[in-house]
Design goal:
This protein is α+β, with helices and mostly antiparallel strands and 81 residues long. The protein contains 2 helices and 2 strands; from the N terminus they run αβαβ. The longest helix has 15 residues, at 12-26.
């Protein structure tokens, strides 16, 4: 999973270009086997992946935050039993 975020100047299109280049050129992964996920309401990222990068719509998945876990989310704490 590759992701990006920023607290200031953030250029989503360039970040997506760099991620795609890393995966397809740097790691030599086949573009035909890669899928992309974006947040449910992130139309800009969806457009960039589809129109600018060329990923087919059927391989761009919109996810809600609850389905994505990352280091920014605190896991639920349960008491020991």
């Amino acid at each position: 999973m590759l992701g990006n975020f920023s607290f200031g100047d953030y250029f989503k299109e360039k970040a997506i270009e760099l991620a795609w280049d890393l995966l397809t050129t740097g790691y030599r992964l086949s573009p035909d086997k890669l899928w992309v996920s974006v947040y449910l309401d992130d139309d800009e990222a969806y457009r960039i992946w589809g129109q600018h990068i060329g990923v087919p719509a059927e391989r761009i998945v919109r996810l809600v935050k609850k389905t994505i876990s990352g280091p920014w989310e605190k896991p639920a704490v349960r008491p020991l039993q």
